[in-house]
Design brief:
The chain has a domain of about 160 residues. Helices cover about 70% and strands about 10% of the residues. The protein contains four helices and four strands; from the N terminus they run E-E-H-H-H-H-E-E.
Amino acid sequence: MKVYTEIIISMVTGEVLSEKSFDYEGAVAYCKGATDDQKSLGQQQMALYDQVANNYAKVFQNSSNIMASLQSVWQPVIDRGINQYGFSLPEDSALRSMATSSIGQQYKNAAAASGERMAAVGGGNVALPSGVENAARRNLAVEAAQADANAQLGITEKGFDVGRENFLNASKIMASAPGELFNPATAASEAATGAGTAASKTQSEISEEEAAASPWSVVGGILGGAASSFVGGLSSSIFRPKAPPSSSVGANGPGIQEGGGIGS
């Protein structure tokens, strides 16, 4: 098979003026354009790319929405620091009221039981000195006050324990959330990129093979440009106006040639 590397053709007669070529034996690419299977594959790959790209957009948006929701809940907890108090005002008030009421009821029951015991001394026929009964009541009151104080202190300590636990949990959640939420989005992005790369490669191959199937369109463009340059140069050479000859100055004055004629 002969492969031409240079052909010079006359623009006037169409005659081949010169050529350069060499003999070749080996693999060849046929100028027959892309096959129907290739075109079908290209369409399928483009459709897959569109689908995967849309899926990536949805996954990323969902992940972003969840991340924003987590931030709205946990970021304020982190901002309050590790030494924050874990109970809200309503929670704290309810816990303290419950503790006081419970201790008060216990004091009331204990006072009633103490009175009954003192009344039963000697079969109920022996009167105890008034100071003894008053002292017993004072002791119960002191115990109740101490119990209530201890309960209130326990609620305070528990509140700070809960606050510290809330801070650590919030920090852990916000540290792991980006990876857990956006890993699916990253995977979807990689899938979209892979699908787009495959579709782009196939489309490029189709374009190259379609162009190879019509090589004369390329040659025609080159020859057309060359012909345009040639004609342009020729026309500029043919139609370029010539400068008029300089006027001669004769004896009869400027522009008047000798013999009475007017110079052109």
